[in-house]
Write a structure and sequence with these properties.
By secondary structure, this protein is mainly beta. It has one helix at 2-27, and strands at residues 35-48, 51-65, 70-84, 91-105, 112-127, 132-148, 153-169, 177-182, 189-196. It starts with a helix and ends with a strand. Keywords: Signal.
Length: 197
């Protein structure tokens, strides 16, 4: 009887351990050496009276986990902006950008992973109508989260908290436009899908 009872306890323990392992695998999470792909597609449009504007951006990103908590990565971006105004010349700009980021994950192995991010970006856009370029540099600090819906796919959301940007047109006499913002707002919130290899 004692052997049967010990065997039953051993079988239950083994079954429970397997169930926990399967649950962990299904729920996802990050680990050292993982590679992930994410990104965002944004579009905006506005109009008031005779003033109209629209913008489009696609920015894929790739990241790599150096340690269990630290990930680094880079991105490329294509941007397009158009503006028509009664009082200002029409603008039709497009260009490319590159960037790098570093993330610290507070709960990397969990289904719900929180992270802090520091990022720097550079972009160059050309106005097709006026034949000039605008070069921009930006840096930002933000926070985000990943929620794994399977072992490889997660939904990602982030918010910018501290941001600096500087843009300057390459025309004679142009001055740099510098902006600084602190505090998250709904315009700085991003949503995307993350795939982990």
């Amino acid at each position: 009887m004692k052997k049967v009872l010990l065997s039953a306890v051993a079988i239950l323990g083994f079954t429970f351990a397997n169930a926990q392992e399967e649950e962990t695998t299904t729920n996802g999470g990050f680990a050292q050496g993982d590679v992930f792909v994410t990104g965002a597609v944004t579009f905006s449009s506005s109009s008031m009276d005779e003033d109209k504007s629209s913008s489009f951006e696609i920015a894929p990103q790739v990241g790599f986990f150096l340690t269990e908590n630290i990930a680094i990565g880079g991105k490329i971006a294509y941007m397009s902006e158009k503006a028509e105004s009664f009082s200002v010349d029409t603008e039709d700009m497009s260009g490319f950008g590159v960037g790098a980021f570093g993330r610290y994950y507070f709960t990397p192995a969990n289904q719900f992973s929180l992270f802090g991010q520091l990022a720097v970006d550079y972009a160059s856009m050309e106005d097709k109508l006026a034949d000039y370029k605008v070069n921009a540099f930006g840096a930002g600090l933000g926070f985000g989260m990943n929620y794994f819906v399977s072992s490889n796919f997660s939904i990602e959301a982030g918010v910018g908290v501290l941001n600096f940007a500087s843009a300057k047109a390459d025309v004679d006499g142009a001055e740099a436009l510098n902006t600084f913002s602190f505090g998250g707002d709904w315009r700085a919130v991003t949503f995307g899908v993350n795939y982990k290899f």
